[in-house]
Amino acid sequence: MALNPTDLYDIRSLLSEEERMVQDSVARFTDEKVLPIIGECFDKGRFPGELIPEIAALGLLGSSLPEDYGCAGLNGVSYGLICQELERGDSGIRSFVSVQSSLCMYPIYAYGSEDQRREWLPSMAKGEVIGCFGLTEPHGGSDPANMKTHAKRDGGDWVINGAKMWITNGNLAKIAIVWAQTEDGIQGFIVPTDTPGFTAQEIHRKMSLRASVTSGLFFDNVRIPDANRLPNVRGLKGPLGCLTQARYGITWGPIGAAQACLMEAVNYSKDRILFNRPVAATQAVQIKLADMARRITLAQLLSLQLGRLKDAGTLQPTQVSLAKWNNVRMALDIAREARDILGGSGITTEYCPIRHALNLESVITYEGTETVHQLVVGRELTGINAF
To answer: Where is the Acyl-CoA oxidase/dehydrogenase middle domain (predicted)?
Structure first.
């Protein structure tokens, strides 16, 4: 029996029936709704917002949160498979779901009050309220402790001033989860985007994540009530806990991008005839394709075990760092190699490798650069902080 080129170790056989059903439903959505339009969306720099209702109807927003709040209540492996299949379509689609789920809905669930959960989570699961996550600032993202945005208490309110940069969904959002310095340390706030003094400015001229909305957020005496403060966390533990959730999904997402690039390269190399034989008949190309399959297989096993650790409640942030570093680097290298195999055709968005390669330049940078994750692992091994 021939092996599946994108699943040489039959990882699918290790999944539960529910996990396979989730993967299949998201794969169909990607094949039928995302792939037919995503090249044009990337070309035009347009996020396909028309897909949001179906994404919500499939239960992909906040999928791991409890059903009590209108969410699907799926396990961590299922969430990973969602990210994998969405990013097989495009990193921008996965980023939209990742931000909504892990960076906006998760902190409301984990750090918010019960009133906040009841007010926001059901409408966010339905896609009626889109969120964005305000942590990174214009002066740099790898040192969140050096945060300049601040919130000051004024009676029963908080007044926020500052700016955030590179914010996914910023101009789509109805609420922003904003992290700011206070007299009691860093705290999180739910900021409706129609609050006076709040401005979102979309960032244009991007060559990466073009099918995603990226924005700068600006706060000029933005006044919100104390009821909008996330009461159950203080310090960097709050935003870093959110990032661990999102980075977990990112370990899975690039596997999908790499699988798409591998299959594009395999199919093209078998169809492309040079010197009276298919390009796939050359040793050089077969070695490249085999190496892609090897690296994808290793990444699949890494993320699946990470998901099992997450579902067992034993996952550690360093383990997420290792997988994020390995899997995004894997996918970026494969996208570049696939682009090379396609020759001149590889530079057009008629084929997927150049689009995935450009997107992955962002994925390898955001939510912890490759260097940051390397140093996290190094610190774990040595006990010495080299930051």
So the answer is: 132-222
